[in-house]
């Protein structure tokens, strides 16, 4: 009726068009509301959404050292968010947050006028924090411009529903727990830990302003990448806080003058403290998770927000890594210098070809169907790449083969420290650099252990009734029934007429005596003893066993040595104390696993400790005292394998057992000389430098100042003998020093 009264056809049709357009938009909005353009979550769904939470890994002293996640997020409660941070957020992002009901029509109108009529592209989008929360919870899947209107309206619908369900405080909390800070980091808690190494509740005003300022452009205002831009943005946030009466002008000016200070921590799996340890924790978690699923529990180590409390000591691990890096850098320089221009990674073509063929890139090209020649041609092409050494990263022109040979020359290491009473791991170093050398030399590598196996031989001998002051000739023997095998001793000392007590032979690692002790004790008895001490790797039933030709895992060896300060019982090294859910309710606790039976007597245990003290005080590890000036109570054993391929050092203290291995991943390459590659030179310094640092800190006095118990007087009496005896006149008279003695090795007990 109204339209009929309008006489002007133009005006009538214009009004009809306007009404049709309004009707169209009304129907369009209704269609979005009803889900014609994709489902819009209802109130029930919005009231029960769940965050994907990162699982956290903590040291025994409650330091967060790592996370496992798809999205790095650690949700926190409203009370844990500082008031100044909430004020900063509202001031810069949504000044009318407490006045609107999810959609700020006043702001939308202002943006529309500026954008459409005034063509001001910097006017912003007019989205409220509630709308931004809607976008965080239900990210836009399609980035096409044609869908922007649909997405915006969806977000407005969701925002209105969120405002009906949640209080303003809850909306702020959900927003700050879901918003992205870039680098796959979500939520204020994770961002605070990453950029300032502190929980959000401990952020000060200027730090909170930095993080809030990032939200406009997480990359462009990233304080690590663009500190100047971040500083400008922070100050803009502080100004907005002052404009909204959350800061006085004096406070704002004072904070604006402060420099930008970060304490950045990246929870990248390749970086940070104890990466090899964290990877082993992850593997064990996956096994635990699989068992939990079998029992009907639905946990996910990447999304369930589990908390994993480990046995690791933060400071001990930090100092262990520092000691390792300092020593290995120096040793690497000496190692390369010893080979010079004729190094095998430069001149040994067969070895280089073997290593290239074993490389991942070679195997990948082979699977693609390329022939060997084609692969080599491809891998020989020079290109710009980054190579890493102990000096840092260098950008060079090199081929893939150059890269492979570059990394094959690096010495590697593995070390482990544990509590010998429980097996709780205190430090764990699986290699020199997790990013470039993923292989873990603690849990994955079986290497010949050299002379570190000798204590097991001597322990067996004592248990079979051989007294510690029994003397064995150091004379070299060729064993006829072993194809003339003739173990010899290192060094140039003439030992033809010398006889060593067991203590002296062990402390100076005399090979010829170790084989004779094994012969007398019996190979089968030694193998049984090794098993009782927690060595489960298959060992060779051969006389060379005495020299450590058996291949053993490093953590196995540590558990076995623990028996010497654990009442004769071996332990199984363990890493995880307990696993809790996101609310800290305990899901699983892990108890120490010790051998039920003692492997040897208390008398033998005390004798062995005294004998291995000799290794430290006057034997092959005496530089512990002379060079590193350590006065701690320490027993131990060095080890070096044939051709200087592996260097070992095991240290026993009353409260700790520490095992170190150093060598190359490629077994074909060893140290150029024994003086460089022996355990006392290549492996021992890592322990020594670590213990030096431990001694500086009174907090660890309980460990560093602990003393071995005083041995029974009868034990000291049993050890009271001359360390070396020389053959008598007549024995020397009838012994030809130029002729090697021959005999058959007695394999029976």
TrEMBL record:
Protein's cellular compartments: Cell membrane
Major localization class: membrane
Membrane-spanning parts: 12-37
Pathway this chain belongs to: Cell wall biogenesis; peptidoglycan biosynthesis
Residue span, Penicillin-binding protein transpeptidase domain: 416-662
Record domain Glycosyl transferase family: where: 71-241
Record keywords, A-Z: Carboxypeptidase, Cell membrane, Cell shape, Cell wall biogenesis/degradation, Glycosyltransferase, Hydrolase, Membrane, Multifunctional enzyme, Peptidoglycan synthesis, Protease, Transferase, Transmembrane, Transmembrane helix
Record lineage: Bacteria, Pseudomonadati, Bacteroidota, Flavobacteriia, Flavobacteriales
Pfam families: Transgly (PF00912), Transpeptidase (PF00905)
Species assigned in the record: Zobellia uliginosa
Name of this chain's protein: Penicillin-binding protein 1A
Catalysed transformations (reactions): Preferential cleavage: (Ac)2-L-Lys-D-Ala-|-D-Ala. Also transpeptidation of peptidyl-alanyl moieties that are N-acyl substituents of D-alanine; [GlcNAc-(1->4)-Mur2Ac(oyl-L-Ala-gamma-D-Glu-L-Lys-D-Ala-D-Ala)](n)-di-trans,octa-cis-undecaprenyl diphosphate + beta-D-GlcNAc-(1->4)-Mur2Ac(oyl-L-Ala-gamma-D-Glu-L-Lys-D-Ala-D-Ala)-di-trans,octa-cis-undecaprenyl diphosphate = [GlcNAc-(1->4)-Mur2Ac(oyl-L-Ala-gamma-D-Glu-L-Lys-D-Ala-D-Ala)](n+1)-di-trans,octa-cis-undecaprenyl diphosphate + di-trans,octa-cis-undecaprenyl diphosphate + H(+)
Keyword Translocase found: no
Family indicated by similarity: In the N-terminal section; belongs to the glycosyltransferase 51 family.
């Amino acid at each position: 009726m109204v339209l009929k009264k309008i006489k002007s056809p133009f005006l009538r049709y214009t009004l009809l068009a306007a009404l049709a357009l309004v009707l169209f938009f009304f129907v369009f909005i209704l269609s979005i509301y009803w889900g014609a353009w994709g489902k819009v979550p209802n109130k029930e769904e919005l009231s029960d959404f769940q965050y994907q939470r990162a699982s956290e890994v903590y040291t025994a002293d409650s330091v967060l050292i790592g996370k496992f996640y798809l999205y790095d997020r650690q949700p926190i409660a409203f009370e844990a968010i500082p008031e100044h941070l909430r004020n900063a957020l509202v001031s810069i992002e949504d000044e009318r947050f407490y006045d609107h009901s999810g959609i700020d029509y006043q702001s939308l109108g202002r943006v529309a006028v500026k954008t459409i009529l005034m063509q001001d592209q910097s006017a912003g989008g007019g989205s409220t924090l509630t709308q931004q929360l809607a976008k965080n919870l239900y990210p836009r899947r399609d980035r096409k411009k044609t869908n922007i209107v649909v997405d915006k309206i969806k977000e407005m619908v969701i925002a209105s529903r969120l405002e009906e369900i949640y209080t303003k405080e809850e909306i702020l909390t959900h927003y700050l727990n879901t918003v992205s800070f870039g680098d796959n980091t979500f939520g204020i808690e994770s961002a605070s830990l990453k950029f300032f190494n502190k929980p959000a509740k401990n952020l000060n005003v200027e730090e909170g302003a930095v993080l809030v300022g990032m939200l406009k452009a997480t990359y462009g205002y990233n304080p690590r990448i663009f500190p100047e831009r971040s500083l400008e943005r922070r100050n803009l946030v502080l100004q907005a806080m002052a404009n909204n009466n959350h800061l006085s002008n004096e406070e704002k000016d004072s904070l604006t003058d402060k420099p930008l200070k970060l304490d950045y921590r990246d929870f990248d799996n390749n970086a940070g403290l104890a990466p090899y340890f964290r990877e082993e924790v992850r593997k064990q978690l996956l096994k635990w998770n699989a068992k939990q699923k079998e029992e009907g529990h639905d946990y996910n180590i990447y999304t369930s927000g589990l908390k994993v409390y480990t046995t690791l000591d933060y400071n001990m691990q930090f100092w262990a890594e520092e000691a390792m890096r300092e020593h290995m850098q120096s040793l690497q320089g000496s190692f390369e210098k010893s080979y010079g221009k004729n190094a095998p990674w430069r001149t040994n073509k067969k070895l280089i070809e073997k290593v290239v063929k074993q490389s991942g890139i070679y195997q990948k090209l082979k699977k693609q169907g390329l022939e060997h020649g084609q692969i080599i041609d491809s891998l020989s092409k020079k290109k710009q790449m980054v190579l890493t050494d102990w000096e840092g990263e260098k950008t060079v022109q090199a081929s893939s083969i150059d890269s492979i040979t570059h990394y094959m020359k690096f010495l590697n290491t593995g070390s482990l420290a544990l509590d010998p009473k429980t097996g709780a791991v205190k430090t764990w170093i699986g290699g020199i650099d997790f990013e470039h050398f993923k292989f873990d030399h603690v849990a994955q590598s079986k290497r010949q252990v050299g002379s570190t196996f000798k204590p097991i031989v001597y322990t067996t001998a004592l248990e079979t009734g051989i007294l510690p002051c029994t003397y064995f000739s150091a004379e070299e023997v060729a064993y006829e029934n072993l194809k003339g095998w003739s173990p010899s001793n290192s060094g140039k000392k003439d030992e033809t007429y010398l006889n060593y007590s067991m203590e002296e032979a062990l402390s100076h690692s005399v090979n010829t005596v170790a084989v004779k002790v094994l012969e007398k004790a019996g190979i089968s008895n030694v193998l049984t003893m090794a098993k009782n001490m927690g060595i489960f790797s298959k060992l060779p039933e051969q006389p060379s066993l005495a020299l450590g030709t058996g291949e053993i895992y490093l953590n196995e060896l540590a558990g076995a040595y623990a028996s010497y300060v654990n009442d004769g019982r071996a332990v199984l090294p363990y890493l995880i104390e307990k696993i809790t859910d996101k609310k800290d309710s305990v899901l699983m606790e892990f108890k120490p696993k010790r051998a039920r039976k003692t492997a040897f007597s208390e008398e033998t245990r005390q004798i062995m400790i005294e004998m291995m003290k000799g290794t430290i005080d006057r034997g092959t590890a005496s530089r512990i005292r002379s060079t590193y000036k350590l006065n701690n109570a320490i027993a131990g054993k060095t080890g070096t394998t044939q051709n200087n391929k592996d260097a070992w050092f095991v240290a026993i203290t009353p409260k700790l057992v520490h095992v170190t291995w150093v060598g190359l991943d490629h077994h074909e390459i060893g140290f150029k000389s024994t003086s460089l590659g022996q355990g006392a030179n290549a492996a021992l310094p890592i322990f020594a430098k670590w213990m030096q640092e431990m001694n500086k800190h009174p907090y660890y006095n309980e460990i560093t100042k602990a003393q071995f118990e005083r041995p029974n007087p009868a034990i000291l009496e049993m050890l009271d003998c001359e360390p070396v005896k020389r053959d008598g006149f007549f024995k020397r008279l009838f012994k030809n020093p130029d002729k090697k003695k021959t005999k058959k090795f007695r394999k029976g007990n």
